[in-house]
Write a structure and sequence with these properties.
This protein is of the alpha/beta class and 266 residues long. It has a single domain, classed as Rossmann fold (3-Layer(aba) Sandwich), CATH 3.40.50. The chain is 28% helix and 21% strand. The chain is built from seven helices and ten strands. The strands form two sheets. Strands 7-6-5-4-2-3-1-10 form an eight-stranded mixed β-sheet, with helices on both faces. Strands 8-9 form a two-stranded antiparallel sheet. It starts with a helix and ends with a strand.
Length: 266
């Protein structure tokens, strides 16, 4: 029987796709509840797509009551009138879970993107404490998904550095943190710097574990806005046709304006 190169190529692609699908299915897909924030000018231009931030809370905001998310962090500042031109999704993690327990991101993102004008190239991730650990972990799991990330007072496995080096990263940690020592961030930053990654590190002198006021830092949101994904069409790639995605700088938008906060999607 004669086997040509075309048949071999098709078999290879099918085999790879099956293995990839099996790997993706190792985590259970779940639907976490979330708060949703829309920019004030969201309805002004029906053709405009908006950047989106996923904010991951710390352990104490876990549970079933969404209002607890507004006690601190980004949802707190948004509820007080914080001005940022992003769609913001703030999911709530169940008490017996962490941000790595399930595949919650894809179901939530798919729901939001199906109903809102989301810029798929400008998806950002940030979180503090348990959310800082979650930011590192989720970015490692999907390094081609986020244009930039900002983990705060968290930690990660230095073995993830190769994956994480693809993503512009701004790390925050208090030097006086007694719950999660700053060394957890230092080792990650050092590993990324060795790989010449695009990483910034803010050592917050004499600050402890609660550094949530950094979510009120406009410099952080201006920094995020610099980055967008640059997706390479599959026909320009080598096998096995996995889309290579890298971050690139883009011009900054106009000054940020006030925007309301909503729970869920109408």
């Amino acid at each position: 029987m004669k086997i040509n190169k075309k048949h071999i190529l098709v078999c290879f692609i099918l085999a790879f796709s099956l293995n990839f699908a099996m790997a993706k299915s190792t985590l259970k897909k779940v639907k976490y509840n979330y708060l949703l924030h829309l920019p004030q000018d969201y309805d002004k231009d029906p053709n405009k797509k908006w950047p989106i931030i996923f904010y991951l809370h710390g352990r104490h905001a876990s549970g079933k009551h969404l209002e607890s998310l507004e006690r601190y962090g980004l949802p707190y500042y948004l509820s007080k009138g914080k001005k940022i031109d992003f769609i913001v999704v703030s999911p709530q993690c169940p008490w017996n879970k962490n941000w790595s327990s399930d595949d919650w991101f894809n179901p939530v993102y798919d729901e939001v993107a199906a109903k809102l004008r989301v810029d798929n190239n400008r998806v950002y991730l940030m979180g503090m404490s348990m959310g800082g650990f979650g930011t590192w972990a989720l970015a490692d799991r999907m390094p081609d998904r986020f244009a930039a990330i900002s983990p705060m007072c968290g930690g990660a496995d230095v073995k993830w550095a190769d994956q994480l080096s693809k993503i512009p990263t701004w790390v925050f940690h208090g030097t006086a943190d007694r719950e999660i020592p700053i060394s957890r961030s230092e080792v990650m930053v050092k590993a990324l710097e060795k790989l010449k990654a695009n990483v910034k590190f803010s050592r917050l002198k004499n600050q402890g574990h609660d550094i949530s006021k950094q979510f009120n830092n406009d410099e952080l949101y201006n920094w995020l806005m610099q980055y967008s994904l640059n997706k390479i069409p599959f026909w320009q790639e080598t096998l096995p046709f996995i889309k290579a995605i890298v971050a690139k700088k883009i011009p900054l938008n106009l000054p940020l304006r006030p925007s309301p906060t909503f729970a869920g999607i109408p």
